[in-house]
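Researcher: Please generate the 3D structure of the following complex. Treat every line as part of one assembly.
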Amino acid sequence: ETGVTQSPTHLIKTRGQQVTLRCSSQSGHNTVSWYQQALGQGPQFIFQYYREEENGRGNFPPRFSGLQFPNYSSELNVNALELDDSALYLCASSLGSSGGRQETQYFGPGTRLLVL
Amino acid sequence: QQQVKQSPQSLIVQKGGISIINCAYENTAFDYFPWYQQFPGKGPALLIAIRPDVSEKKEGRFTISFNKSAKQFSLHIMDSQPGDSATYFCAASKGNNFNKFYFGSGTKLNVKP
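Model: Done. Output below.
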C-alpha cells in the first residue's frame, strides 16, 4: 500500500470544460509529480511541485496548471478540455530536499478522464 | 521525440521461464534507471532501479542488466509466475534538482500457467 490517494477515480467531461483532479501524498512526502498516461502508453511528465512551488514542467500547454497545499496535497487543473486529454492522470509523491533529488516515487491509482 | 524506447510491446512466457524486456536511451545525461510494474486499475509501482556505475543489479527474481556503452538496459524476470502478469515500464531520469522521469511505452507480460 503506497498511501497516495487520488480523486475522483473516474470522470467524464465534454470538450471545452474545465476539470480539477486531486491527490493526497503519502505521509511525510513533500513533493508531488503529475503524469498523463494515454491508453497503451507510458506516463508523460506534466509537472512537479515541491513545498508548494512548481519545480519543473514537461511539454504540456499552460492550460494544464497545478497547486500544492501546505499539507502537500495537490491539484491538477485542466482548462478548455480537448478530446486528446482523455487519459489516466497519475500523481506520484516522494520526499525531496532543496537542491537534491527525489528518487523513489510512489504512484496513486490514477484518475481516468474521458473527454467527449 | 521518445527519450526511452522499450521492446517488446507484449510478451508471453510459460510459468518458470525467463522474461526479458529491453530499453534503449539516447541522452547520456540520464543517471537513474528504474523499472515499474503496473497492474490494471493501479498506479505504477517501483520494482527495481539501477545507476550507470554498475552493470547489474539483482533483487530476488528480478535483475537489471545495464550496458552504458550501448545505452541499453534490460529487465530479466527469472522463474516467471502468473502473478507477474502485468505491464512493465522502464524509465530514466537525469540528475537535476527535480526528477522528470521519461518512461518507455510499456511491455504487457502474460505468464501462462
